Amino acid sequence: MGWLDFIFKKKDKAEFVQLYEEYSKEIIPAQRPISQLSFIVLDTETTGLNPEKAEMVSFGAVKITRSKIQVESAKEHYFDTSAKNQEALKVHGILYPQNPTKPEVFAKELLPFLHNHILVGHHIGFDLKVLGKFLAPFGLKKITNPVLDTQYLATRLEKGYHYDVGMGKPGEYTLDSLCERYGIQLDDRHTAAGDAFLTAQLLLKLLKKAEKIGIADYRTLMR
Amino acid sequence: MSNVIVNRVKEFLKNYPPFSFLTSTSLEEVAKAVDIKFYGEGEMLFERGEPAQDCFFILKEGSVSLYDLKEGRENIIEVCDEGDVFGVLALLGKRPYILNAKASEDALVYAVPVAIFEKLVQENSRVSLYFAAGFASGQVVIRNDLSQSQKARSVFNQGSEDNGLLIFTGQSDFNYSKEVLTCPESTGIQEAAFLMSKKGVGSIVIVNEHRHPLGILTDKDLRNRLVAAGLPYETPVVQLMSTPVMTKSPSADFSDLYLTMVKNRLHHLIFTEDGSSKSPVTGILSDHDILLSQGNSPAVLINALMNTWEVPAMAKIRNRAEYLLKYYLENEVSMDFVANIVSEINDIIIQKAVQISQKKLEELYPTIPAVKFCFVSLGSEGREEQLLRTDLDNALIFEDVPEAEFQSTQQYFLDLGAEVIEILLSCGFHPCPAKMMANNPKWCQPISIWKKYFSDWILTPNQEALMNATIFFDFRAIYGQKQLVQTLTDHIYNEIKGKSIFLNFLAKNALLNPPPLGFFRNFILEKSGEQKDKFDIKLRAMMPLADIARILVLSHKVVGINNTFKRFEKLAELEPNHEELLREAGKAYEILMRVRAIEGLKSQNSGRFISPENIGKLQRQLLKNTFYPIDELQKIIRVRYQLDYFGS
């Protein structure tokens, strides 16, 4: 190892991260019908609203393949957080998580799980930032999966492409009001896995709606 | 680790029988295995005659109606409500559905895999009793509340009595044989077999002097109880027949007959004058008759395929074909026929897929290149041997175009290939892991490049070239300009003519897989990995035969025969001195195809890996017998192509 390498010590890239990057190179064909696509619907709970500072408290996700929610694939993890953030946890009612998952164990399990699937969430941008920060220590530069936001999909289907959520009624496209509108029972709200499950059910209904108006394949879904 | 999502499913299930009888641990196991699906109003969950899925359903939200068609009109039999369990025929030996199920409102449905539930049914007597009661009354829906069920029925099934079977309404249209082959109890087994073979039937009914049925003997019994048991041919039929027999009156309700067969796992049901076994035989109803009555004959399926442009409908028909395949395999229908039917169905699906894709691209492309092309199948589908929907291997050949147009032309055909592949995946085929498919730029090329590919493989037979050769030399035109394929075939024979050394390389490659039996006549099993202690029937037994058939066919310049077993038959004509061995090799290949397909259907995979201890002594012996020609042929190849002197 040269002395320069020593100064600019590269972050070691874990093996599972390399594998993830290898898999990500595969692109989903534009023509693939919606019924043949695989999704991972996910949600995180954090100690705050600023993704730069917030710590991940819990993570929940479930896989959808061939338009079916695979209950077997459901994931739920809780994490230890630093003391200064403990205060914020009272909101979630999880003060001291039982059986917290170690970050490395989580990362090793998560990345192979994500391989090449479309990631789905409500306001998923926030969750991806939090996850990205969590996974950075293992050498992951970026989560490269294709991404679909259920809030965006719902507004697109109801109001069209160029609708600005900010212009509408406040709260019209929150997970709560969408679930109410689409007849999904609000259970286990504000747990990561519970919200991921609700979002997954919402996605199934939105996709069905999309197919009815001719959004039939990957290309048109992700446009 | 329990988690919120599994718990949510569990909380729902535990309110409804039969799930309410389960312990918390068992229930959790079931909840974990559930798939959740949403059906929009008007969407079908399953249709009459379709093979049962590997799950049954419980309705979470919305409503699902079960109906049959009466003179083209929907006749609603049941409307399912939250918590109702339906589609339970899947639990009974995977028989096809007898009703249509449609979401009459948006419906959220939990699908419970049969495999996990079967285990619980055995463990928990209350659960099995619950289902048994349901089946006994012929219910299609297992109601969560009886009084509600009575109510629902009286609303939706006015006029019909509540004690009958609800699955079928009235006499159904089915045909059965009224001419039954019978013999007296004193008959010897060989004579009985002779009578069956003379009449061309698979069963014989043993009767007493009043023609009252005593027992039945089938093809299978001859194999399992006579040959396998090593009994003499003089054994009296009464010693081998199945007895007592189930009898019914031909005027019985079809649903009654059907359920009797299903519940008792019968392949044949005997009709007598008054329905009891103490009355003369009047007819016999077989599995096959039922299959036909459900519209699962090859002609019906092919006709249905020709008449649809909907991918989901094509997928369903392909699933039905699998049911047909299973029936054929169980009943030892000739492999030639089976392979022909399945290849025909696959071919039509591919042809349709190309046409559908062309139509779709018409809208997307302002100008479609006026270039002729041919969509070809490779590998096992190219050889018309793909019984199960295993990996796709295909390619696209188009005419040569001026260089300026090459890029746009190739782009169009790549898009076409991609559309076709997506349709085929939707129909249940699997992608080729090595990406030998028409959506790969390398395998979507003009004829001049294809000629060059083959020339290169023939002139420089390195490891990769030989690997490609084993797949690409079995190409077969499926759709488009067949002349392109003919041109390519001519080119190949021209190239090989001068370079016979290529065949030596190909021959050497064919012997890379050692004979399937070890020194002690044991199966050579996989030594490690996921398939440890399993026998790789494709690599060890089928590929060596397919490879040898290919080399010999190439050396004799035979054109247009792709089936490995037909190739061997042709070769037997061409090489009279090895006639017997070559014919045996063909037979061996047929047996291997059958064994693999049965294994694949049984374990819902490619059937490639077989556990020798799980297949029974007879099958094991049968398999071993197929290896003998492999060994002999490899010896011949070694001598003919002088491989012992051929440097590596």
Automatic annotation (TrEMBL), chain A:
Entry keyword Hydrolase: yes
Domain Exonuclease stretches: 38-212
Highest taxon of source: Bacteria
Database matches in InterPro entries: Ribonucl_H (IPR013520), RNaseH-like_sf (IPR012337), RNaseH_sf (IPR036397)
CDD domains from the UniProt entry: DEDDh
Keywords: Exonuclease, Hydrolase, Nuclease, Nucleotidyltransferase, Transferase
UniProt-listed SMART domains: EXOIII
Protein known as: DNA polymerase III epsilon subunit
UniProtKB/TrEMBL annotation, chain B:
Residue intervals of the CBS domain: 176-233, 241-300
Pfam families reported in the protein's UniProt record: CBS, cNMP_binding, DUF294, DUF294_C
GO terms for MF: [protein-PII] uridylyltransferase activity
Chain ranges of the Cyclic nucleotide-binding domain: 18-125
Entry-linked PROSITE patterns: CBS (PS51371), CNMP_BINDING_3 (PS50042)
Keyword line: CBS domain, Repeat
Presence of keyword Cell cycle: no
UniProt-listed PANTHER family: CBS DOMAIN-CONTAINING PROTEIN CBSX2, CHLOROPLASTIC (PTHR48108), CBS DOMAIN-CONTAINING PROTEIN DDB_G0289609 (PTHR48108:SF26)
Protein's name in the database: Signal-transduction protein
